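TEACHING EXERCISE
Course module: macromolecular assemblies
Task: Read the component lines below, then compare them to the predicted structure of the full complex.
Student: A.B.
Group: 4
Components provided:
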Amino acid sequence: MVVELICVGTELLLGNIVNTNAAYLSEKCALLGLSMYHQSVVGDNAERLKESLETALNRSDVVILSGGLGPTQDDLTKETAAEVMGIPLKEDPHSRERIEEYFKNSQYKVITDNNWKQALVPEGAIVLDNENGTAPGIIMEKNGKSVILLPGPPGELIPMFEGKVYDYLNKLQPEIIYSTMVRICGLGESFVENEIRDLIDNQTNPTIATYAKIGQVDLRVTAKAASEKEAAKLAKPMLKELVKRFGDHIYTMDEHKSLEEVIVHFLKERSLTLTTAESCTGGMIAARITDVPGASEVFKQGLVTYSNRAKRKLLDVKKTTLKEYGAVSEKTAKEMAKNGAFITGSDACVSVTGTAGPTGGTEEKPVGLVYIGCCYNNKTVVKEFHFKGERQKIREQATANALILLRECILADKGQE
Amino acid sequence: MVVELICVGTELLLGNIVNTNAAYLSEKCALLGLSMYHQSVVGDNAERLKESLETALNRSDVVILSGGLGPTQDDLTKETAAEVMGIPLKEDPHSRERIEEYFKNSQYKVITDNNWKQALVPEGAIVLDNENGTAPGIIMEKNGKSVILLPGPPGELIPMFEGKVYDYLNKLQPEIIYSTMVRICGLGESFVENEIRDLIDNQTNPTIATYAKIGQVDLRVTAKAASEKEAAKLAKPMLKELVKRFGDHIYTMDEHKSLEEVIVHFLKERSLTLTTAESCTGGMIAARITDVPGASEVFKQGLVTYSNRAKRKLLDVKKTTLKEYGAVSEKTAKEMAKNGAFITGSDACVSVTGTAGPTGGTEEKPVGLVYIGCCYNNKTVVKEFHFKGERQKIREQATANALILLRECILADKGQE
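Instructor-supplied answer key:
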């Protein structure tokens, strides 16, 4: 089964945005065992989109298009795809109702004429409700080919794909795919790759693929067989081998679980509370923790102490510490973590202080120098990091490593129970 | 002059990496005033690459290929492109020398046979030295068409493009592009589009394009002319018209400026300080503010008060308020903002309290109900919002709207000065 992507949007051709949808959809299609040989990008232009779609339909079984489903005149993916497939558009009462509903609850109360364009659907098509916007997704089938239209914004495309399109594509395939994501934190990409070079070189079924993210490396193990049970059995020895090689660096084997979810779960299990004391990450750790539904059980409050005065006032960091060692120092990070836990009455506190740049670095304390502290169960540890990259990348790395250190502290403590 | 991209690499088709090269090259080509109508991705497969390149050469003047110039057997971009162009390969003594030099200085001292493959160059081609790797870039010209081959790793591609390819492309182009991004906040995409329908319908030069993001809409106005001055002059009436129609909703005309940067700049100008009092956004507003370099001048501290107890303890929200109105209420948001400013001694404080879901919603207070408060210059306003979508999307919308409300309060105050 051959699948092909067409991403629609002049903003992609102008380089206004990076095409993360293509990477996301490619990864998912690979996971489903579909072969992909072509991806393309065209602008908001009916003629060129038509040509691209015709070419794609000639060489592939399934064509996924993303973007161009919005209410504006630019948006013409649906109209063009329906024309290429030779299927007329018709208003879908259900979609019209959903748009009315959406606007009733939206801050923008005015429905303009162009919004109703989004309720038009190719006759006989499968309509995919959009939980995060007004443009429904659409699946058209004809002459053994499928054309799938998805909205461009990743916040709409991803939930729609996970909720509906994945299952649809899975059913087109005779073989069952069994895939497990082994998520590793605290080790670099090339280190991980080196450790599994032999497994990669000899892979057949299951296969193994690496995906590097900030602060973590994901390994996807995929097996194909006639039944799920059989495929799972094929994957098992490889998974066992990975657990043997990476041990506690594996924080989950659940693809949909994030590091922060694992941490919130850990703390919940132990009925412990967490607080954050952030300087250069400026709230990013708290934001990741509170992204977990139900985080309120373990996270009651967080402090962003950006200035020295705030570090003193809110976290009781000693004046002499700031004067003698500076705000970016092991000692400040330690006091922030320790006092943060004490003052807020929390069982754990992670702290971050560093120089994210672009200015403010010195020879002694260059941009990228970050101290991360963690107080857990009355023990406080601090680690020094030298991160590379731009301001936002340094902050993201610091955030990820704060979560990794917190997890390490919880695990280490567990070992001593 | 029409340019087209072909990115070569199976890792792109598998979704192992995000295609940042395409975004980078597209943006540069747009800046150079080159028109781009197509981008494509193919794997390391000679037949499909050949087909793609032939198609591209039929419809474009310049084709830029990235990737597949490495020393391994997989790497066949150069061989395939030379074949399509009908130009034989020949060893280039200069490139051979550079490879020898590179290995002398590298940690990998062993030159294998396949490394010499990289010294082969199409006859008469322009060779672009690679300062960051062994694969030289190549420009082939024939029958008025140019084919440009660049290495895949961004760390090699970007310096090579900036150093050599930019100038080469600039010389091919007689026209200059002048582009301005008009960034609008606080209005929905279809509302904005409706307001400018006449401008869109009648666009020729300049053109106008809309880009929707969370909480904002960007309008790109692009004019082409023989000189930058002339192009700027062409764009001016359109820009004036947009200012007339959207007024204060336009927060910047600087493409590289974010809403948070504009706000930090506003506050700096007025020597004012800001704090944040966040519940459901859990630090996201503070994180956006501190993403601005130099935010420390205006942002000293932020509070994440996730629990009722933290709201009482850190922000002095009245027990009776929480009991009678609940944490998600106008009154709580008001006290959070007002007390937040007072307690921290800040001139401004934005507060957010709401239900981000997925659970915790009631009929009276459904998921998505968010109150955003802003205390500025001793006046406090609160707005009620009903956001749609998943937890993360609700939080992002709340964050964006908190920044928008803060900007509104600053502007309103300015009017009364």
